[in-house]
Amino acid sequence: MKYSQSICAINSYTSLETIDELVKNGMKHIHVDFMDSFYVPNFGVSFEAAEFLIKRYPNVNFDAHLMVKNPLRLIERLVQVGFETIFLPAKEINKEEFDKISQNYPNVFFGIMLEANNDPNDFRDIVLNSKKILLMTINKIGGTGQKLDENLFKKVEEIKKINPEILIYSDGGLRQENTDSFYNNKIDVAVGGSIIWSFETIKDFSEWWNKKYA
């Protein structure tokens, strides 16, 4: 199981120092939230900040997590910025639209974000043709500090029944005391935020994670 750091969960004044240390200690994934204050009552990262980070860490896999209305309007800009993985809200896109962007941008991995109230089977055709999917493991999106809802892991089996080869990213509720739940439920990439501050140093966190899950 790989670890991915959520940028929005890091203090903006110390973010580069924190990410530098995580990457130095082996982190290969970074999760970037884009929010519009309408879909969820928050704002996320700017395009300019995301482009800066992608250029700064060329060996890291960046994913864009869209929590916005009409997400298709952002695709071209996100591709220009350099994202190769983009997750869209499941209820904001249909199969025809998904197929079109997949054809237009063949070098980009597109997937859907499944919220707590989304049934994977309602989006079967998209899941079947995706390489990656983002499973929310909290009940309310758009905030930090939300508690894990372990019942949402039941969707992993449903997703794998549809597409056994798909990579599952989780987002939300990751804590030092529950990481085994993510691993045991076959999450491929676990997005975390405040978990890194449970350790005295970033190096301590990285060594702990890599020893358990690398």
UniProtKB/TrEMBL annotation:
<keyword id="KW-0479">Metal-binding</keyword>
<dbReference type="InterPro" id="IPR000056">
    <property type="entry name" value="Ribul_P_3_epim-like"/>
</dbReference>
<dbReference type="InterPro" id="IPR011060">
    <property type="entry name" value="RibuloseP-bd_barrel"/>
</dbReference>
<keyword id="KW-0413">Isomerase</keyword>
<dbReference type="Pfam" id="PF00834">
    <property type="entry name" value="Ribul_P_3_epim"/>
</dbReference>
<protein>
    <submittedName>
        <fullName>Ribulose phosphate epimerase</fullName>
    </submittedName>
</protein>
<dbReference type="InterPro" id="IPR013785">
    <property type="entry name" value="Aldolase_TIM"/>
</dbReference>
